[in-house]
TrEMBL record:
InterPro entries: DUF6111. Keywords: Membrane, Transmembrane, Transmembrane helix. Pfam families: DUF6111. This is Uncharacterized protein. The chain crosses the membrane at residues 35-58. It comes from Ancylobacter rudongensis.
Length: 86
């Protein structure tokens, strides 16, 4: 659940940053007046790149050992022992 919320926060971040820039940087009074199709496309591309980058980083940082012999999951004394690499 935390990963989903983190991905959602990364996706919303560019839109929020642009909205804050419009409000306080350009001093636009209305929240919707500065938004254009180009701004939406750029924010969407940045959001997709942020989410994809975080997923790639998560994939490479959470890998386990890749050398050794794989032992499949087994039942031992009525308890499931997950598969692992020895």
């Amino acid at each position: 659940m935390a990963r989903i919320l983190a991905q959602l926060a990364l996706f919303i971040l560019p839109f929020l940053a642009f909205a804050l820039y419009l409000r306080y940087g350009r001093k636009v009074d209305s929240w919707l007046s500065g938004w254009s199709l180009r701004a939406m496309i750029v924010c969407s591309l940045i959001a997709v790149l942020l989410v994809a980058g975080s997923l790639i980083a998560l994939e490479f940082s959470s890998r386990g050992p890749t050398t050794g012999r794989y032992v499949p999951p087994t039942w031992k004394d009525g308890v499931m022992v997950p598969g692992h690499i020895e």
